[in-house]
C-alpha cells in the first residue's frame, strides 16, 4: 500500500469564505459487507462514502455501480469504471465461496458478518494514505500498518490464517494495491473538486426544546432538538450562564431524507433546578451567531394555575366567614 504526496489542486484552494473547507482530514472508503446466514445463503452489499456522505451504491442484480450524485464519477474513464465493476462483481462472487470453504477451519459460526473496508484519506497538507481492513463479526482480522497489510494483533491464529490466504492470491492483491495507490487518490481529489458545491453546502439548523419522559419523582428530562443542518459537524450543549452542564448526553447524528442531519441533546435535572438553563447550538452555517434556546418550563404557568385555584378558595373562605358572622 503506497503513501502518496499529492498536491491539493484547486479544490483545496477554493475561493471565498470556503477556502478552508477541506483542510480537515477526509476519507473515501469502499465498503463491502456480506451476511452469511448459512452455508448457501449470503447477502452482499457494496457502497462507497466520502466522509459521512454516501456517494456510490451497488446494484446486486446488474453488478453495476450506482452514482448517487452527478459528480460521483469524478474523472474516472468509462474503462476504469468498467474495470471497477468487474472487480467488485467478481469479488462478490468469489469471496463468499472462499469464506464458505474456510469457514470451518477459521471457526466462523453461522450466521456471521464479514466487512471489508478499503480506501484512501486526504490529510491536511496534501498527504494521501491508503487503508484496508477485514473484519469478522465486527472484530478486525487484517489492517494496514506503515502502509502494508498485516494480521491484527488481537486476531489470534484466525487473523494469521486469513492473512496467509490473502497473500497467496497475488492477482487480487495486485488489483487492490492499484485501486488504493492510484484509482482511489485520483477519484478522491476529483470528486472533491467536482462536488464542492454540494460538499461545501451550508444549511442553517432549526432547534427547539421539549420535555422527555419522566425519569423519576421530582426530576425532568430536558431535550434540545436540532434538525436540518449541513455539514454534519455541530456543537450542542445544555448550559447555565457560561457553564456547560454536567450530565449532558447527545444522541447519534442521524441523516434526514434531504441529506441534512438531526440530533438530540438530553439533560436530566431536578425539577426545582431548571432556572437559567438554555440550549446552545454552534454550527458553521450560523456565521458565529449561536442559537440560544432558553428553557420555559410549565412552572411559570403552574404559578398561574395555583393562583387561579387559590383566589376562588380565598374568596370562598371570606364569603363563608362573612355569612357566618352575619348568621
Which SSEs are present, and which pair or pack?
Layout: E1 4-5, E2 26-36, E3 42-50, E4 53-59, E5 64-67, H1 78-102, E6 112-122, E7 127-136, E8 139-145, E9 148-151, H2 156-168, H3 170-194, H4 196-199, E10 206-211, E11 219-229, E12 235-240, E13 243-244, E14 249-250, E15 254-255, E16 261-270, E17 277-282, E18 291-294, H5 299-326
Antiparallel strand pairs: 1-7, 2-3, 2-6, 3-4, 4-5, 6-7, 7-8, 8-9, 10-11, 11-16, 12-13, 12-17, 14-16, 15-16, 17-18
Plain-language structure description:
It is built from 5 helices and 18 strands. The chain is α+β, with helices and mostly antiparallel strands. The strands form 3 sheets. Strands 1, 2, 3, 4, 5, 6, 7, 8 and 9 form a 9-stranded antiparallel beta sheet that branches. Strands 10, 11, 14, 15 and 16 form a 5-stranded antiparallel beta sheet that branches. It has a 4-stranded antiparallel beta sheet with strand order 13-12-17-18, with no helix packed on it. The longest helix is centred in the C-terminal third of the chain and has 28 residues. The N terminus is likely disordered.
Amino acid at each position: 500500500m503506497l503513501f502518496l504526496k499529492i498536491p491539493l489542486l484547486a479544490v483545496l484552494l477554493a475561493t471565498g469564505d470556503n477556502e478552508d473547507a477541506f483542510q480537515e482530514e477526509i476519507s473515501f472508503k469502499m465498503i463491502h459487507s456480506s451476511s452469511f446466514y448459512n452455508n448457501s445463503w449470503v447477502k452482499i452489499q457494496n457502497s462507497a462514502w466520502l466522509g459521512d456522505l454516501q456517494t456510490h451504491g451497488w446494484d446486486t442484480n446488474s453488478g453495476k455501480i450506482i452514482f448517487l450524485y452527478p459528480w460521483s464519477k469524478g474523472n474516472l474513464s468509462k474503462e476504469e469504471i468498467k474495470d471497477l465493476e468487474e472487480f467488485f462483481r467478481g469479488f462478490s462472487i468469489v469471496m463468499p465461496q472462499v469464506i464458505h470453504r474456510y469457514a470451518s477451519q477459521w471457526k466462523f459460526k453461522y450466521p456471521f458478518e464479514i466487512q471489508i473496508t478499503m480506501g484512501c484519506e486526504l490529510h491536511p497538507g496534501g498527504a494521501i494514505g491508503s487503508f484496508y481492513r477485514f473484519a469478522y463479526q465486527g472484530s478486525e482480522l487484517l489492517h494496514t500498518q506503515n502502509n502494508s497489510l498485516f494480521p491484527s494483533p488481537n486476531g489470534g491464529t484466525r487473523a494469521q490464517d486469513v492473512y496467509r490466504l490473502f497473500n497467496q492470491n497475488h492477482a487480487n492483491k495486485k488489483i487492490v494495491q492499484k485501486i488504493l495507490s492510484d484509482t482511489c487518490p485520483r477519484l478522491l481529489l476529483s470528486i472533491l473538486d467536482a462536488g464542492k458545491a454540494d460538499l461545501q453546502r451550508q444549511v442553517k439548523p432549526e432547534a427547539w426544546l421539549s420535555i422527555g419522559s419522566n425519569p423519576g419523582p421530582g426530576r425532568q428530562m430536558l431535550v434540545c432538538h436540532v434538525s436540518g443542518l449541513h455539514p454534519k459537524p455541530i456543537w450542542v450543549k445544555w448550559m447555565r450562564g457560561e457553564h456547560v452542564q454536567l450530565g449532558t448526553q447527545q444522541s447519534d447524528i442521524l441523516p434526514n431524507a434531504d441529506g441534512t442531519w438531526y440530533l438530540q441533546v438530553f439533560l436530566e435535572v431536578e425539577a426545582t433546578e431548571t432556572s437559567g438553563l438554555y440550549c446552545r447550538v454552534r454550527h458553521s452555517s450560523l456565521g458565529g451567531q449561536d442559537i440560544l434556546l432558553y428553557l420555559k418550563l410549565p412552572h411559570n404557568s403552574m404559578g398561574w394555575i395555583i393562583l387561579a385555584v387559590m383566589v376562588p378558595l380565598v374568596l370562598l373562605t371570606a364569603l363563608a366567614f362573612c355569612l357566618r358572622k352575619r348568621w
